[in-house]
Q: What sequence folds into this?
């Protein structure tokens, strides 16, 4: 038996569908232009492979804030099930705000749609991270799922003024790995600790800087020399001490350390420049 | 309190990447509690980690990964907040990472090893040893060098050696290239948290023998 729907409800659904079709088309066009622009910039600097990567990035990605907030408002929960996960496209420059919004939606309203969006984006990247560090596919899969559950459980501890969503998720994956693969404790400082010595004064524009932390860090990373990038990547993705890294590269330990130091100085200053 | 001596960048980076072991992490986390500047450095390194993670080529998860995690969400309650019950008395002195291993600094059971010098072993992981070392005012540790590295975090008071003067919050890195005889300041007890990856090597054979007996 066909389900009865009042006319006004049908009209409403039709209108919102039109709106969504318009949105999808609009965002995919904007995204294509965005990718082309990025590819051109890479080409201008002579990085053909990066240009190809920039252009070949999958267009289809979830659009968390739209799915979790606007669609609920427009059509209620039943509407969002009409859409498969991954049907919307985030614009790169607003990624950060969207992932942050996802995490706060999880902490405030236990928003599953927001969680799905985070899962689709970060789950495969956390798995990739764990595999780079030597976990086999099965273990990496389990831990990536575990990391996503941790995000769900700890969403209320996320502080956008302290770190971007990507950085926070990196620390979750890192700690989970130390805990489950190395089976070690990881002592960490606690911001609530009465013994903690606070910042002398927080610069008022610090929050502003945090807003584009990812862009700044990405910029700083792309400014590094290939040699610096190599040691930074090996530091993050190999779980080897700096002296082992030095051995593998056939370099003196001092060289590895100074490359790291210079790279970090660059990243640090990118986060502290106020201009 | 201005901290003059910090851990080297590569030690902070190893902490941020997750490469450092529990022993070194304990000393670094203790330093970070006392040092806003190094907290910023670690945060910058973690931001680099976040950026590198976001830039990795995704490896797709299993077909049922999302649905299986979604069914587990209801069983995953929100984690407790960060509020921990802090003991008011001494809490302002003992950084929390350390408190987990040693309790309050005021209540540590010290083992006397030489006149004015006592210690408390905290952690043993492979070759790594973490100890609390307490020097009475003006007391000094006999001249020694290190077969490996030693990282020292000053918790209370201060001490001096050939390389300089260290006070609460300061951090010293020594290795085999430095022979030192750290001597506590005259104005109070000096308590340090130290991690070593090899035994100390004392200049005096007798002292060395004694130190071996105590497991240094």
A:
């Amino acid at each position: 038996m066909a389900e009865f729907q009042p006319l006004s409800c049908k009209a409403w659904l039709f209108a919102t569908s039109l709106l969504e079709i318009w949105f999808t088309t609009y965002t995919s066009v904007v995204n294509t232009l965005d990718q082309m622009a990025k590819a051109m910039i890479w080409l201008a600097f002579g990085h053909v492979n990066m240009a190809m990567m920039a252009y070949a990035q999958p267009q289809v990605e979830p659009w968390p804030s739209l799915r979790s907030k606007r669609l609920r408002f427009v059509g209620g929960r039943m509407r969002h099930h009409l859409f498969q996960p991954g049907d919307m496209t985030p614009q790169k420059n607003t990624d950060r705000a969207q992932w942050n919004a996802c995490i706060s939606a999880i902490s405030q309203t236990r928003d599953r749609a927001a969680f799905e969006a985070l899962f689709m984006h970060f789950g495969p990247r956390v798995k990739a991270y764990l595999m780079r560090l030597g976990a086999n596919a099965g273990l990496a899969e389990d831990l990536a799922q575990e990391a996503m559950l941790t995000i769900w459980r700890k969403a209320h501890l996320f502080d956008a003024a302290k770190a971007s969503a990507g950085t926070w998720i990196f620390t979750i994956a890192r700690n989970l790995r130390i805990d489950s693969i190395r089976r070690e404790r990881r002592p960490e400082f606690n911001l609530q600790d009465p013994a903690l010595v606070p910042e002398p004064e927080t610069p008022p524009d610090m929050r502003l800087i945090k807003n584009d932390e990812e862009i700044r860090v990405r910029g700083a990373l792309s400014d590094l020399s290939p040699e610096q990038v190599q040691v930074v990547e090996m530091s993050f993705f190999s779980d080897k001490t700096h002296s082992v890294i030095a051995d593998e590269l056939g370099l003196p330990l001092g060289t590895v350390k100074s490359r790291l130091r210079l790279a970090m100085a660059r990243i640090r200053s990118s986060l502290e420049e106020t201009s | 309190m201005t901290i003059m001596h910090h851990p080297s960048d590569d030690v902070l980076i190893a902490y941020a990447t997750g490469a450092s072991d529990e022993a070194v992490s304990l000393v670094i986390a203790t330093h970070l509690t006392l040092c806003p500047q190094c907290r910023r450095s670690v945060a910058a390194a973690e931001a680099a980690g976040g950026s590198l993670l976001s830039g990795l080529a995704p490896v797709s998860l299993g077909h049922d990964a999302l649905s299986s995690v979604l069914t587990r969400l209801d069983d995953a309650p929100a984690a407790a907040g960060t509020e921990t019950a802090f003991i008011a008395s001494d809490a302002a002195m003992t950084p929390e990472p350390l408190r987990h291993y040693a309790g309050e600094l005021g209540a540590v059971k010290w083992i006397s090893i030489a006149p004015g010098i006592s210690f408390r072993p905290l952690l043993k992981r492979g070759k790594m040893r973490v100890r609390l070392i307490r020097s009475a005012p003006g007391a000094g540790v006999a001249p020694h060098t290190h077969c490996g590295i030693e990282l020292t975090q000053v918790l209370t008071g201060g001490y001096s050696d050939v390389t300089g003067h260290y006070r609460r919050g300061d951090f010293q890195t020594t290795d085999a290239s430095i022979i030192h005889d750290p001597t506590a300041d005259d104005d109070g007890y000096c308590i340090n948290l130290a991690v070593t990856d090899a035994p100390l090597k004392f200049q005096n054979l007798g002292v060395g023998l004694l130190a071996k007996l105590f497991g240094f």
Summary: Chain B touches chain A through 73 residues (CB under 8 Å). The two ends of chain B are 31 Å apart (CA to CA). Chain B has a mean pLDDT of 89. Residues 36-55 of chain B form the longest helix (20 residues).
